[in-house]
Recover the amino acids of this structure.
């Protein structure tokens, strides 16, 4: 794992935290109980509940460790609090157009929040790195698996801060 911060939105951090809590407080104790019951049934070498339970417990423990590391490295950034809304920074929703005037809307999110189908691109993805700091009208070149593409920044938006 690298030493760079794990940028997350408040919602992204809450999602990681919720998964950790679910695994630690509910799923793991229930599995430990099942394993204990299976261990009491005698021969463990051919006991499917015991063998599968131990395997599943290792997977949960691995996931808990990973979630713990990601949350420790987390730097929670609220895009609504962005001061410079004229440039592309973390949390920006950007409309870009390619050479053929095909437009795409992307939101620069944390790497753990990325979901290409929903238009959320990880902060360290090649296209996100190319767009960082750009203003409307700027052209940016991006090396993609299909080759180099040039995009123009058409619009930049950020969530509005909550009024309290």
């Amino acid at each position: 794992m690298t030493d760079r911060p794990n940028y997350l939105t408040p919602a992204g951090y809450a999602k990681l935290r919720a998964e950790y809590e679910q695994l630690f407080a509910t799923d793991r104790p229930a599995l430990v109980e099942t394993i204990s019951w299976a261990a009491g049934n005698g021969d463990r070498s051919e006991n499917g509940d015991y063998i599968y339970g131990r395997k599943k417990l290792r997977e949960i423990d691995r996931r808990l460790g990973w979630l713990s590391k990601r949350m420790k490295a987390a730097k929670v950034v609220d895009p609504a609090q962005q001061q410079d809304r004229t440039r592309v920074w973390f949390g920006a929703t950007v409309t870009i157009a390619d050479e053929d005037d095909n437009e795409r809307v992307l939101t620069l999110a944390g790497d753990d929040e990325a979901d290409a189908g929903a238009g959320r691109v990880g902060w360290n993805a090649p296209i996100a790195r190319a767009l960082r700091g750009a203003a409307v009208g700027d052209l940016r070149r991006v090396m993609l698996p299909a080759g180099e593409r040039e995009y123009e920044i058409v619009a930049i938006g950020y969530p509005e801060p909550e009024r309290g």
